[in-house]
Amino acid sequence: MRTVTVAGAQLGPIQKAESREQVVARMIDLMDQAKAKGADLIVYPELALTTFFPRWYMEDQAEVDKWFEKEMPNAATQPLFDRAKEYGMGMSFGYAELTPDGHHFNTSILTDKTGRIVGKYRKTHLPGHAEFDTERAFQHLEKRYFEPGDTGFPVFRTMGGIFGMCICNDRRWPEVYRVMGLQGVEMVVLGYNTPSVNSQKGEEAGDKRIFHSNLSMQAGAYQNSTWVVGIAKAGSEDGHPLMGGSVIINPDGEIMAQAKTEDDELIVHACDLDDTIFGKETIFNFAKHRRIEHYGLITSQVGVVVPPEK
Ligand code: CDT
Description:
Blueprint: E1 3-10, H1 20-36, E2 41-43, H2 61-65, H3 78-87, E3 90-98, E4 104-111, E5 117-122, H4 142-145, E6 155-158, E7 161-167, H5 174-181, E8 187-192, E9 197-198, E10 201-205, H6 207-224, E11 227-232, E12 235-237, E13 240-242, E14 247-249, E15 255-258, E16 265-272, H7 277-281, H8 286-289, H9 296-300
Parallel strand pairs: 1-2, 2-3, 7-8, 8-11
Antiparallel strand pairs: 1-16, 3-4, 4-5, 6-7, 9-10, 11-14, 12-13, 14-15
Helix pairs in contact: 1-3, 5-6
The structure holds 4-methylsulfanyl-2-ureido-butyric acid.
4-methylsulfanyl-2-ureido-butyric acid binds next to loops.
C-alpha cells in the first residue's frame, strides 16, 4: 500500500472586495481541519487567492496586474506555506502568475511535505474570449488576461508517488490525462471555477454542468488508471454563481468523495497509489495495446476537417 490521504479543500465564494489575507485565513482553517483528519496532501481550487476576476472586463493593465502574484510564496501566502510545513502536508493551489519578464499565466503549484515547491503547471486550454462579448450573459475573459501555458503536462515524483496537475477547462480534454498517463501519473490534482450556468446556452444549468465535469474527470481517471482530485471554487461571487461538486475519483473512475455544499468544505479520502497498478498493467497497458500509427491527427491537426462531399 502507498496511501496518500488527500483533503480536497473546496472554497466557497470569494467576493471582489475580499483580500488575499482573508482568503488565506480561510485556507489555513481548512488546512487545520485536514490535519485533524490525517491528510498528507491538501488540494485547493484554481485562482484560489482571489475572486474569479476574468469575469470582469478591464482595459487598464495596471488594474489587471493587481490580480496577479509576482512571487510565490509572497507576504500574503507565506502563512499558508508555514502551516503546511509545520503539519508536514503537501499542498496544491492555483493563482494568477506574473513572471519577472512580464508573462501572465493561470498557474498551479505542488509542494512537498516540507513546503518546498516541487511542481509548477501553467494552464494550457484557456476558455472564453479576449474582447467584451455582448452576446454572453456574463464575461469569461481568460483569453484576454492569460497566455497559454508553456509547461506542457509534466509529472513530479513526490510523496512516494507520481503527481500531475491541470487546471479547470483542461479537465475536459482527454489529451491532458493521456500525456500525463504516458508518464505514469498516479494522481492528477486540479482546481476549477466553473459558472453554474452556460453564458451562451441559458437553459443549461445545475446538474448537467456537474455531469459534464464528472464525466470528463472520471473518464480521464479510468482510461489512464490514475486518481483524479478535482476541487471547486463554488457559490455566488458578487452575484455570479459557480458550481461546487468537488470530487476525489479512484483509478476505476468511481467517485470516492464528493462535496455537498457550495461553501468552504473539506472532502477527505485515503488514496492508495498502488490501486493504479492493475489498470496500468492490464486493459490500459499502453506499451502493449496503443496503436500510435493511427493517432497522427491528434497532434498534426487542430480543428475538424470533414471529408469532401461526393
Ligand atoms: N475556469 C475555467 O476554465 N472555466 C471553464 C468555463 C468555460 S465557460 C467559458 C470550464 O471549463 O469549467
